[in-house]
Amino acid sequence: MRIAQIAPLFEAVPPKLYGGTERVVSSLTEELVAMGHDVTLFASGDSVTGAKLAAMRAQALRLDPSVKDWVAHYYKMVEQVAQRAAEFDVIHSHIDYFPLGLLQRQGTPFLTTLHGRLDLPEFKMIYETYGDTPFVSISDHQRLPIPSLNWVGTVLHGMPKDRLKPQAVDQHYFAFLGRVSPEKGLDKAIRIAARAGVKLKVAAKVDSADRAYFEREIEPLLSQGHVEFVGEISDSQKPDFLSQAHALLFPIDWPEPFGLVMIEAMACGTPVIAFRRGSVPEVMDDGLTGFIVDNEDEAVAAVSRIPSLDRQQVRARFDERFTARRMAEDYVGIYEMLAMGGKTQLRAVGA
């Protein structure tokens, strides 16, 4: 098939450091190419891909301090995609509501994967404006705020099976990976590790929007002897970082749409202790890939149960459920359905 992938412009594809959606788009794009499809990736020019790269600007937005209005760059990209729409059998967007008006007015089948939270009133308003267009969720839980949309499938994320592998190392600490923000629960992770008597290593990004929160709430906690803040890390650093962890702590306090760090940990054979929020029960197998808990007390209690888990089985479950090939095959099924004019409802895959 001739497939267009529309990626966010904030990070390169794949991102050099933090970047969940861009990392998923990269995994999907490269796997589609490996499967023999003709893929064009609309992304920033510093992206690296085996697909045809349609460079929308030279550099990812986050790395370019000269950018004053990022929305303008998105609208330029959307217009260029619309002008080339006839070149493709299907157009797959990963940039929320920006292209919906143009895409629904042209003849090429298209779909939008929604990668973020949907529980804000403005999101319900805007997405219901385009309620007949095809949407894909990344977990069933993500759909709950707007169940009436034209959901054509739920596709759980995946990534290349060889990107992250378990390392033959001893375990020395708990890991926290991702982004520092109130909903990600780093303060809770610090308290859980302290109560368990285990060191916590934090590999996390601090966005400018969360800088004040970091300085006010988190930075004072970093002086505690059991906490080491290492900052953002690359994919090449993750296997050692995660393999040396007894567990990844994921004490989130929001309706997590997916949580890519959970499957990154699983790929390294590292169990996850996660709060029962959002997608967590769909991604994790409680008692196999880690433990699902409801509060800090339960998280501390789960620490003593970590030795009962088999790290080889954690990795095996990743191989069964969360590879890029599985994700790409699931999307191709939706592409083919849309290309034939179908509107069937698909259930969550990867289960």
TrEMBL record:
What residues does the Glycosyl transferase family domain cover?
169-306
An example Pfam family from this entry, by short name, is Glyco_transf_4
List, for all copies, the residue spans of the domain called Glycosyltransferase subfamily 4-like N-terminal. 18-119
Q: What is this protein called?
A: Glycosyltransferase family 4 protein
Q: Which organism is it from?
A: Teichococcus globiformis
